[in-house]
Structures are given as structure tokens and as C-alpha cells.
User: Fold this.
Amino acid sequence: MITLMMMTENSRETQILKMAFEQSHIKPLLTKPTYSNYIKALQYAPDVILMEMPKINSEQLHFARLIKQHRKTKHIPVIAYGDQTDPALKRGMHRSGVENFLERPLKFSQLIKVISMRLKQQNKSIELSAGKCRVEEKEQDIALILDPDTLATKKIELIVKHICGLMAFPFTVAKVLQITGSSKGGAADLAKEIEADPVIATNILKVSNSVFFASANRRINSIRDAIVRIGFRETKRIVMGMAVMELFDDESNSAGYDRIDYWYHSLATGLFAERIARRLGRVNAEEAFLGGLLHDFGLLLFDEFFPTVFEKILALTTDRGTSFNDAAINLLGISHTDIVAELFEIWKIPSSLSEAITSQYSICDERKSLDTPGKRMALCIALGNLMAKSYRFGALCDQYVIALDAWVYREAKMSGGPGKALVDGVRQEIQMYR
Assistant:
């Protein structure tokens, strides 16, 4: 197993990275840049050293120099990350022994690529077992996934195994959902969670001082003041959106699919779903937003982890003029929502969200009793998805739009249609995420 000596300042970031490394079968050793831990490095001889680089970084740079000066440890790759910084400071880090510096927002997939590259130079590789298979093993799994004789449950198991080995759901989203579901959760709790995530905290301050909220007389410098200016509800939504959108790079792995268009569409679906939930009633509006944002999360997972399978589904979608969901079921016998449902259970996402996402494509097929929060949320998501597609907010993997029966609009208290004000409101609000 690869061992990694990790020196981080932020407790939330430490928790997230530790769990992600463990899922990737990398053993993290949590330390600080002190002389005693330099002695520990001599004893443990870690394969990689990862350090967060704060603004005042003399201790970190001194530690890196010590590592590079000792014959036993000088070969160990030293990788650092931190806020965007001046090129001259980066050169100073390099002279001290830092091989790579990654700027926030830190993406785990990018970090793993850099670690793998440095290890490869020393004829080492990340231990690939359980959650992360070797290339040959993954190819065998893909063949099983595409084999019509493989049971649907086995296909889901194989796909989830690969995904769980390489990613974890953002803690920030889970915490915001806890605050949303608690009668005691308030602005102080939300501020605490935001402050624990430097990237999101920076973005929230940026939004609070943007043209949407800025006051000519006062610039916001604290998270609590930002929440007051933006609004408690709106801040929760922005935090969840940003946390989810930071999971992956913007660059797509598959032809015919654009991740920026995907996020634009998903954000619009979430914003529509939230507004519909408030009209419909008896639905958690914040969860409806997150459900809309993640309604086609499985597409992104296919593109990130199984691009060859994804492209086959895309080809079937365009060749037959059918929806991506139907094409996936025809090819694999499972849909992307089946995968998301399994992952949500592992990640302990509320069951109502899982029910909503798996039911979104069938909830409007015929008049149904909306007798659970998940079913009511599914209706909000289905209608939000239709509106986002119809009004051309971004794009997904198909050009397929299903007309919904009149009862759906009546349930959503939209018998006369969505109305210009609703659509314009979504169009304006989505600009905050740019």
C-alpha cells in the first residue's frame, strides 16, 4: 500500500482528503511540518508528502528542504496545494523541493493523477484493489457490464465498486442538509460549515459582493454578514450547488457531451424544482433543489468513470432518437438512476432524494397518488427538467422532451404554465454560479 504523509491546516479538508485517500487504498499519515515529524519521515519513509501551503509557509518550506537534503528521503515527491498565488512564490516553493503545486479548488481526481505520475517515475503505483481495479480488471468489468447475460444487480455492483474507490460525496452538502432538516439549525451553524471549506467560503464572499447583492456603501468581509445579505435559504442553495460542482473537472471525457452545458441544465432544473416544490407544498424545497441538481448525476459518473460505456449509450440515443435513460436500459438493462440510488444509500443521502431521482422518469406516466415526499419531489424534478430543456438552459445527452399531462401542472399549481416571471427568475439566479 502507498503511504502518504499529509500536512493540512483545515480540519474539514483533512477529513475529506483522508477518506478519499483511504477509499483509493492510500494510507494517509496525518502530521504537521515540525522537526519531530521530519524524524518520523525518516522512520516511515512515506511514498509521497502532501502539504497544504498557507500564506505564511516558512515551516512548510523548511520541512520540504529538510526532506530534500537527506539521502534517505530526497527521492520522496513533495506535492503542495493552496490558494492561487504569485508565480515568484511558486518558484520559491520549487527551489525548496516542492515538485508540484495545485491551486484551489482542489480536485481529488487531479491530485491522484499528479501522485500517480510522480510514483510512476519511481516505478511505483497506487495499490489498485477493491475500489480501484487495474486496467485489465476494469476492462473485464466493462465487458461484463455490456454483456446482456450479466445480472442487473451485478452490473450495478461493478459500476459502484469503481466509483466508490475514487470519490466521496461532499461533506459540506451532507452538513447543509442536516442544518436544513433540523429545527435548531440556523445561520450560525451554516456559517461554521462554510468557514470550514476555504473554496466555498471565498465563493460565498464573492457572491455577496457581486452586482446581485452588493451595496454601494459596504463591502462584506465575513461569512455571517454574507449570509445576512444573500439570505439563509439562498446561501444554503449556493453552497450545495458549489460543493457538488467542484467534484469534477469541466472537461468531458466523451464526444457528444459537454459538462458545462450539463451543469447549466442541472442548475436550472434544480432552481425550477425548488420553486415548484414551494408551490406544491409538503416537499423540502432545499432537497428538491439538490434533487434537481443531481437528477442526472449518473450521466456525469458514466462520463468520468466509464466513458467507453457512456459513448455507446450516446450513440444509441442519437441513432434511435430516444432518451438517454431508455437507451441505457436497452443497452445495459439498468439506468443511470439505479447507480445513483445505490451510491446515495452508501453516502447516506436522504431516502426521499433517492426515491425522487429514481422515480423522475415514471412519476408522470399516469395519474399517481403523490403519497410520499419522494414522489412529490420526483414530480418537481420531472417538471423542472422539462422546463430546463424546453427553455434551453444548457443541454444534456439527448434532444428528447416528453410532454406532460395536464394533471401534472394542476398538482404543481401551474395550470396556466410556468409564467414569464418564473423563467426569468431562474435565468437571473443562475448567473450567481458563473
In short: DSSP finds 22 helices and five strands in the chain. Residues 128-133 have pLDDT under 50 and may be disordered.
